[in-house]
Every structure is written in structure tokens, then in C-alpha cells.
Structure prediction request, 212 residues.
Amino acid sequence: MHLCPLCLSNQTQFYFEDKHRSYFQCSRCELVFVPQEQRLDTVSEKAHYDHHENDPDDQGYRRFLSRLALPLLKRLASDSKGLDFGCGPGPALAHMLREAGHTVALYDIYYQPDADVLEKTYDFVTATEVIEHLFDPKKIWSQWLNLVKPGGWIGIMTKQVIDLEAFACWHYKYDPTHVIFFSRATFRYLAERDKLELEFIGDDVILLRKPQ
Prediction:
């Protein structure tokens, strides 16, 4: 039996298997996840991340991040304070938001491990291509809710599960550091449970607002 790592339901079932890993799905929140014993250890995970090239001056990367940055900026008051959670070695999104006049703190378990920033509250928290890597999404989700002030925003970028047929040939699952996979149904579950306003922007951007 595999407990859902997001909602802790024991109502989970086999979903898919490839030559690398098995995948299970939660009946309650519809999260798809890799069981704990098939995840990378922290050394191997960090080594994989070290190969990422997230240059803040890379115009292609900035265009990619603008899919989250632009709709979020439209919703932020001037001089807002935020946290880029899981910023990686090249915090390009933080640079873009700072250029727009906002203050952005950084946190990353490997590259910006200053836990002091997790003791404050913010007008917004961003997590671009982060949520699919989380080993303990229940803990981190609760942390994000506590980090955001009433009326504040959580901005997420991640690819989402559509259905089993699409999942079977989905390249996104082949990244060994991707261990959980959300769908629109998963975000709707969290929004309803935690009384958050929810917006889907395109295929991979999710904005959630904490009630006032």
C-alpha cells in the first residue's frame, strides 16, 4: 500500500509502469506519484540538477518564464514582496520580477538553502518547474500556504497529467527527478480544500489566491 504523498489517502492504485519506474494514482486528489523506494537519493538528485542551465540572461528561458511572470505581474500590487521557492542556481524569474519593481527573496534546498526566508510572509510565492520534484508535497504545500499573506498569490508552473493514454507517451515522466505529477483535478482538490481562488493560465501555469 502506497499512501498519497499529498493528501495521505490510502486509496491509491497502480497507474502505469515503464522500464524505469512504477506510477500510482490517488483516488482522492488524483495525484500521480512515484513510490518512495524508486526515487533518486539526494546526491544523485543534486548531480542531475547541476546539469541544468538556467541563465537569467538567456532570452529563450526568460520567454519561457514569462508565461508565469506576465499574468502574475498583472495581479500584483506595486512594490510587492515575494519568494521564489526552488529558484535553482540561476534565479531568472526573480530577476524578471525585480526588474518589474518587486522585492524577491530566494530559497532552494540545494542552491539557496537559507531557511530564514521561510520564517517570513510574502505577497506572493512562485515555484516554476518545482512542484513535480517534491518528495513531501503535503509538507511543502502547507509551508507555501503559511508563507503567503491573506490575499496573496501562489504562482506555479508545471506540466500536468491529462489522462492515461497521454501519460503513457509523456516525455515529462522520464526525468528521474520528476516524482509527482499534478492534474487540473489535483489543483481543484487543493483549491476547494484550502479555500483558494484558482486560475489556469494556458497548459502549465496555475495561479492560486489565498482568501483575505
User: Anything to note?
Assistant: The mean pLDDT is 95. The chain has one domain: 12-209. The beta strands are 12-17, 22-26, 32-33, 81-85, 103-107, 122-128, 148-157, 180-181, 197-201, 205-209. Helices lie at 42-49, 59-75, 92-99, 137-147, 164-168, 184-194.
